[in-house]
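User: Show me sequence and structure for the first protein, then do the same for the second.

Assistant: Starting with the first protein.
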Amino acid sequence: MIAGTLLCKRPWRESYSIRGFSLRLLPGIVLSSVGLSFVLNRLSTAIPMPKAFEEMFKSLAHGDPILSILSLAIIAPIAEELFFRGWMLRGFFANYSAKKSIWMTALIFGLFHLNPWQFLVAMPIGLLLGWLVLRTDSMAPCMIGHCVFNFTGVKLLLPLAALFGHSEESINAMTHLPWDMVAFGALLFGVGMVLLLRALPSPNDTTAPVPVNA
């Protein structure tokens, strides 16, 4: 990322804009991120997964709790946001329309994961986070949303499943997330988006980040 800013002759603050934002956005960011995690979990299982990949994903989520939270729910989301919704999206904003820039960044973000299951998850969340950057001109909200999204999938899925009467054993034995949990996730996502839209300023009052030469 440092090399990228040097090669593009772009100030660090322009590539990685982490500005303050209204705390009124937090409830919407959290609820929509938690809900989307449930919905996209179901979407990703639409493609049959080989046993080797399934075991790999489970081992990542069920390893050392502190290490898994630190690596999967904090470091990885922040680093990915700095690169994709920071350096890359800024460069696209300088050369393409906001809509095209967000779509291209989300597509590359999905392909970056190098497997179809995470692609189906990464691209939609990439679209949401790119839109958040556009509307807030700050990477801070999308970093929070990404961290909440990953933390939900890594550590909250099983505890929340217990609230619906599903044991850890039954969830692990299932090919797909139960529909009651998916419906609950869709409801959370919808409520979160309504709260976000109400808390965000009007699009007429917000512009895309200042274009810079890529």
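Switching to the second protein now.
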Amino acid sequence: MKRLLWPSLLATVMLAALALSGCGGGGDGGAPPVVATGTISGRVVQADAVASGIANAEVTLVTTGSAGLGTAQALTTRTDSQGNYTLTGVPVGQQTIMASRSSDAVYRSQTVPGVPVAANRTTRLNIALLRQDQPEPTSVRLSPASVTVDLNGQAKFSGVVDDGSGTPTYVIVGDIGSISPNGLFTGTQVGKGQLKAYAGSASATAEIEVVGPRPPEVSSLLLSPTEFASGGGTLTITAAINDGDGIASAVAEIYAPAQDVTRLDMTLAAGNAKDGTYRVSFDVPANSNVPDSGGVQAPMKYSIRVVATDGSGATGTSEFVDLTVAGVRPPPPPI
């Protein structure tokens, strides 16, 4: 009886092993592997008027990188009345997206390769469609060719399609920031990446580097006027300032001849807190120098600079610019 027990026990073990291998997901009957996915979201806009969205455009995942979907699972969606769309469940990797408006013959379709998709992240992609009545583009010019911006800073790119038919489609390669349909880049993470511009089958590339926060830059300081008659007058101080963190304050420091310092808060006159023009006025007093024994009054000289502080507390200072208040000379003696 003991000799009959071993074959029965061996058969039981083999059946259990087969059952386990069939349930583990590695065999033909197992569950398919889990595919990591992300989301692509943005607007489909008119290339010749990027503020205007295109409704009812079809946005489709054309390729799926290394992690594929079956044909029956091909991803597609349509834009709303403002041109907005969201494509979910996109496999991770470099993907190709196509936007088209098949319901009419007004717009060309646009294929956008190399769209980066990360797991559980949303990639922003705005797609510009060229009009059908424009010739097929053969080149795109993108400027500047390279930029370096602060973290949270911005840079404006100009993409020109060879026939002037509109603005290209922009794609940021590298997890460094985002770009608007009209080419305004905002750096959101330190690192290096590229801007790709597409119009039809034509393309161009620019290099982008986002660096850590830097002190504000006072790129220019202008005084108007730079000289006054002895009676003084009203001075206008204007400074161009930029910084990725945004300017928290701009102060004009006016050093009088006796080293007395007047500090005036400047206000934003044009642009924005990251790249703007600041201005303030100052009433320059009359020349107070005591005339010498010959009745000659020496001119008074002021030195003026601007100190800018950004959102992180870092400061940047301009060079000094001089202001002169003329003196008085006695009239010449009569002949």
